[in-house]
Specification:
Shape: elongated
Number of domains: 1
Length: about 70
């Protein structure tokens, strides 16, 4: 029996701004929205001296999400 290799799609978004950074409640709203869409945050990266962070998320690549992606491209 061969195990199927999972396929993922990834999303990277920079949040925050030089002047105001990112407020926790705004980040929470964004992450809850992503979670409702099936995204799971796997990493964050602080952009030094910019008050911004990159949020990296993934979700399983399914037929449904593959169709959504092809429409966006």
């Amino acid at each position: 029996m061969t195990a199927e290799i999972p396929c993922w799609e990834y999303r990277v978004q920079t949040v925050g701004s030089f002047w105001t950074g990112i407020k926790a409640e705004n980040l929470e709203l964004l992450l809850n929205e992503w979670g409702a869409e099936g995204w799971e945050v796997v990493s964050t990266h602080v952009l030094e001296n910019q008050n911004k962070i990159n949020v990296i998320a993934r979700r399983p690549l399914t037929r449904e999400t593959r169709r959504m992606r092809t429409r966006l491209v």
